[in-house]
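Q: Got a minute? One more chain.
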Amino acid sequence: MSDPLYIERDGHRTWLKWHRGRRKASDPVFTGSRILEAMRLGASVEVDLVIHADHGCAILHNFELDAETTGTGLVRETPASVLRELNLRGNDGQPITDKVMLLEDLCALLAKETPHPNALLQLDFKESHAALTPAVVANFGASVAPVADYLILSGGDFDAIGMLTDSAPKLRSGYDPCYGESLARLQATGDYQTFVSEALATAPKAEMIYLAYDIVLAADKAGFDIVAPIHAAGKRIDAWTIRTVDDTTIPSIHRLLDLKVDQITTDDPERLKAALKQ
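A: Always. Here it is, folded:
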């Protein structure tokens, strides 16, 4: 089977984004080997960023260390030297040999092995602009600048995204307007047009708009094509996250492809591509 990079349908290409660096559901998250593989193949891949005690970013999703690593306590209170000695945990919660990476570690790996021209690594910033200090911004810019051509920075606080992208001029940006009970509010109001308009107005420089896939499908069911106005604004759309690929999610995947989303975030790109081929 070919590598799980994208799906072509009716002349439109939809990329399969390797969520948290996973090629398949059994993969542990955020391992350097999988991320480098994705970048070498020309895949779209995503990792998360959380600020640590030395004014840099760790490649982790949670603010607490316990669930993802062999450490304890808050990432924010843990120095870089300690983080680098911690092991990641696998899907079963047991420690694996891979260590926690910092943003500068990952960028250094990418600089050593030139990624495929189509590769795109999404850095999903989990914090708000209130957490940013001049040192965090400066360290971020110094880390990503050498490989910025292959990166896109995303998050739900576009003020934070703007501050960070200013530190690395070639860095692209994306925006995720989904937060809290977004779907419930939209289903109650039905005002998908305002939701899209506000997202585009909030993040005029964003190249990608990241939407929870159930919002995309709920809008479609309500008779509103949420993809079209985003494309009309010259932006691409990512639908997140298909966690399992089975009989319950395959119809949703087909509909997202029909709607021509530009990217589907999934924990199992390999199975998703294989299921569609079947």
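A: The domain at 6-277 is CATH 3.20.20.190 (TIM Barrel).
Q: Perfect, thanks.
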